[in-house]
Amino acid sequence: MDFGEKLYRLRIERGIYQKQLAVYLHVSVGTISNYENGIHSPDLKTLSKLASYFHVSADYLLDRTDYISPIDDLTRELIDHYTAGDIMNAILELSPEGRHDLVKYLAMLSVCDGVDLPSLSGSEHGNMDFVPPVLEPEDNEDEEEYWDEPLPGESL
For residues 24 and 53, is the Cβ–Cβ distance under 8 A? Predict the structure, then answer.
């Protein structure tokens, strides 16, 4: 999808008219139309303003990535003083096998949390879906007696 298509979709998805965007950018409605139809491209300053306006990265607008969030999200703290950028850098330092294992682990966590992570499943990533093992009870003769015993501090 080229720049014009992305701009058009972002504008429509957010319910913004060309005129509103033109006023924000201090350009004509015709300029917005030219951007969307691929006739002209914005200069760097305007591209930056568009990315800020729609809360996306310039790389997303330029079709260099499918990651739609603004680059500022990488500095957002996720947990225990770790930012998304810190975690991304740690992932990049892993071996290919380590990254593969990490994706499998994330898929397992998503199953445990009941969350669907479509970006981690599907044919484009190979078969990395976590399949929970079927746990069979161990053959233990004393099992019935064990479960009948009261817990500490509990009476029958």
Answer: yes
How many domains, in total, are found in the chain?
2
Q: Which 3 state secondary structure label does DSSP give 142?
A: coil
CA 76 to chain centre: 14
pTM above 0.85, yes or no: no
Contact by Cβ (8 Å): 83, 77:
yes
What is the C-alpha separation between 38 and 4, in angstroms, rounded?
5
CATH code of 52's domain? 1.10.260.40
Find the domain containing 41 and state its range.
Answer: 3-70
Which pair of structure tokens corresponds to residue 76?
């957002």
Cα(86)–Cα(91) distance, integer angstroms:
9
Count, residues in the chain:
156
- The span from the CA of 86 to the CA of 71, in Å, is 13
Same-domain pairing of 64 and 49: yes
Tell me: the pLDDT tens digits for 50-63? 999 999 988 899 98
